[in-house]
Amino acid sequence: MDGFDKTTCPRFAERLGIDALTVQTSRRDWFLSDASAALAASLDAATAGYDEVVASGFSMGGYGALLYSRAARVRRILAVSPQYCIDPAVAPYDPGRHGKFRRMGRAMPRPEEWGDTGIRGALIFDPAIVADRLHARNIMAAFPHLVPVALPHGGHPATGTIAEAGRIGAISTMLVEDRLDARRIRRLHREARKTSARYRLSLASAGLLRHGARAGAELRALAEGAAPQLRLEAGLALLSHDSEAGSRALSQLLDEFPDAPPSWARRIGRALAGLSD
């Protein structure tokens, strides 16, 4: 799917000498399609010869890992910022994904309908993101043996700051070796956020209403000097606070990256349209 990297064997799997199976979708369909039954059957067949299967998934992939956990014989799971459901009737708190649900054009099962509600593992989420926090609450009710791990301002997915520091493999290793430790994961987050531009972006965005001057200055700095994707996010956040500064930062970004993904222009266009409403 556009915007996702080509599949490679995870480095932690190579290091630990374990087999890795990656499931990717070609659409933003939450792994739901006319081929869902075939996918479940394939996962069942692929994992039949193993004594132990663990799974991990991020965002839409977290939903998929939970949904197919029974078919894939999963014993432990690492679910990072997963959705419980994006059907407006089930998740009115996540309006940003309601359009995606309508484009899917099919019913969306709750993960406990197909998944193994007895699996153990960790559910990592960012409590500063309302939708992610409420998805996590619903998932915890359905999968009571998961341990919730809140990483404030980690972003979406919530391990973003840890990933920036190159430490995701440490969490995956904990999963494989059956020693998931919520305190250690939170410690990794605390250590990583000290140098994380992603963390600064989330913190500044959240602080705009109460600390406008300081947060605005931080967003302007990020919009000018961070990595390209973070510059986009900072400029979009800045628009609602200082439309002139935000527009200037986004225009500069597009000038510097004329071959930017089309999604950038769409997101900027929607944001500017929202200012004029």
Question: In words, what does this structure look like?
Answer:
The structure is a single chain. With 277 residues, the protein is an alpha/beta fold. It folds into two domains: 183 residues, 3-Layer(aba) Sandwich (Rossmann fold), CATH 3.40.50; 80 residues. The protein is built from 14 helices and four strands. It has a four-stranded parallel sheet with strand order 1-2-3-4, with helices on both faces. The protein is globular, with a radius of gyration of 20 Å.
Topology:
Elements (H helix, E strand, L loop, with lengths): L10 H6 L19 H12 L6 E5 L1 H8 L8 E5 L17 H7 L6 H4 L5 E6 L4 H13 L3 E5 L9 H5 L3 H9 L5 H12 L3 H10 L5 H14 L2 H12 L3 H14 L5 H15 L1
Parallel strand pairs: 1-2, 2-3, 3-4
Summary keywords:
277 residues, alpha/beta, Rossmann fold, 2 domains, four-stranded parallel sheet, 14 helices, 51% helix, 8% strand, globular
Sum this structure up briefly.
The chain has 277 residues and is an alpha/beta fold. 51% of the residues lie in helices and 8% in strands.
Count of all domains: 2
Overall number of strands = 4
Distance between the termini: 32 Å
- In DSSP terms (H or I, runs of 4 or more residues), the helix count works out at 14
Largest sheet: 4 strands, parallel
For the largest beta sheet, what order do the strands appear in spatially?
Answer: 1-2-3-4
Arithmetic mean pLDDT:
94
Instruction: Classify the fold: give the CATH topology of the largest domain.
Output: Rossmann fold
